[in-house]
């Protein structure tokens, strides 16, 4: 694992650095594999990043967008990660719907939707069950409880190691989430963390010893690149460890 930590002065600088990093991965991916694949995180932090990506002139026909987690709500619901990314970015660019791969939230059971998305991923990446395809970029946020994607502390999702997608649970509300082994298969994982409220969790994630089921972001140890991008408010102490 090739881990890099960068503390940026403020959130705009954080967004610009993340944009620069993502853009640097697109051409090489297209040259080597004919496409660029990215999984998006939800929540509020990445919204300005998605707005900035929408302003770029990119080969949209070669870019495929997935989600690393999703609240189990309709795509029109205000909490939908898909809705946020469409409004901030995807509705503003000439990208085909066949290049947009939202997590399905219309199955009667979230577990059925998890299987459906897993099968979609396996077909897209042409892998068999048990194989973990490599996304070019997996974007992640981190909650103030050190969760990432929808891998929440002390939940069953943390124990799922033989699937790409599983069901997460936040306070009794179902989510769909990539499993941590699938996240770790990515060529490049980028955490975007901003805000004073994330500082205590970051301290535990970067502590020499701490329990991964209590601080799930510790589980993210990709074979490829791992970038931790913080603003000063969140990461000023961690960076000097
Ligand atoms: C989600 C996210 C989640 C998010 C963190 C941080 O669906 O909510 O994928 O993992 O990244 O909760 O959220 P903020 O960026 O809003 O702090």
TrEMBL record:
Residues 10-228 form the Glucosamine/galactosamine-6-phosphate isomerase domain. Keywords: Hydrolase. It comes from the Bacteria. Its EC number is 3.1.1.31. It catalyses: 6-phospho-D-glucono-1,5-lactone + H2O = 6-phospho-D-gluconate + H(+). Pathway: Carbohydrate degradation; pentose phosphate pathway; D-ribulose 5-phosphate from D-glucose 6-phosphate (oxidative stage): step 2/3. The keyword Transmembrane does not apply. One of its GO terms (biological process) is carbohydrate metabolic process. GO terms for molecular function: 6-phosphogluconolactonase activity. It holds the Pfam family Glucosamine_iso. Hydrolysis of 6-phosphogluconolactone to 6-phosphogluconate. Belongs to the glucosamine/galactosamine-6-phosphate isomerase family. 6-phosphogluconolactonase subfamily. NCBIfam families: pgl. This is 6-phosphogluconolactonase. It comes from Mastigocoleus testarum BC008.
